[in-house]
Amino acid sequence: MAKQSRRKVLGIQIPYFVLLLILFTPFTFSLSAQESKLSLKDSKTLKETYRYIESLEPSRLRISKQTYNRYTNFETHFHFHYSGKKLSKWIQSRIRNYSKGSTGDFIAYFHDGEVVLGKSFFQLPKLDRALILLHEARHADGKEYSHVPCPENFRFLNARDLNIVPSGKKGCDATLDGGYGLTASFLFELGSYGFLSQSETAHRYNSEISRILASSD
Q: Are 128 and 63 in contact (CB under 8 A)?
């Protein structure tokens, strides 16, 4: 039998076929070990959500450059030009632990470095799941991004669950770059690059913006 080709790496003889396997095996997406708090089915849904975000890579604008420049603020918020892959990394750098549990009047919430996902999260469309992860990742940046109570006469509905009433509850933002500001900027990019229809983009964007109580002046 012919001798198997080997190569010395760090003083260790490694067969060439093993070395090639290491070098050319595709990167596999993985989450924190804390995802073990989720069932296999829920963990799969979470991974699918991140893969969806990563698939949203821009190609060419589907709206005028003038309109895009007027409304885009993605780079102002994130400090990089829109990219689904970069956005996924941005979120994962802030959210490392996940669990499933009771979330009360919310679909999810961030607490002590962990995002608790309610049962309804896993029943939402992938875009809504992506928006929630992005929103919760902003909370990881500090207490300055905590919510403030929505006005008692707040007339807007919760876009993802009509049973959740925002008025009088801590479900609004006092800053333009809070959770809702970030999700709005993300939605605008999706509409600008044709991932969403202009109609759906406008409805979703306006829904997120309605939760921001800060003046834009």
A: no
Q: 92 burial class (0-12, 13-18, 19+ CB within 10 angstroms)?
A: middle
% of the chain residues with pLDDT over 70: 82
| Cα distance between residue 75 and residue 215, in whole Å | 20
User: Do the strands 6-9 and 12-15 form a parallel or antiparallel pair, or are they unpaired?
Assistant: antiparallel
- Concatenate the DSSP letters of all residues of 151-210 into one string: PTT--PPPSS-TTS--BTSEEEBSSTTSHHHHHHHHHHHHHHTTSS-HHHHHHHHHHHHT
The helix, strand and coil proportions of the chain, stated in percent and rounded to the nearest 5, come to 45, 15, 40
pLDDT tens digits along 105-115: 889 999 988 99
Other beta carbons within 10 angstroms of residue 165's beta carbon come to: 14
Q: What is the pLDDT of residues 125-157, one digit of tens each?
A: 999 999 999 999 999 999 999 999 999 999 998
Measured CA to CA, the distance from residue 5 to residue 150 in angstroms comes to: 68
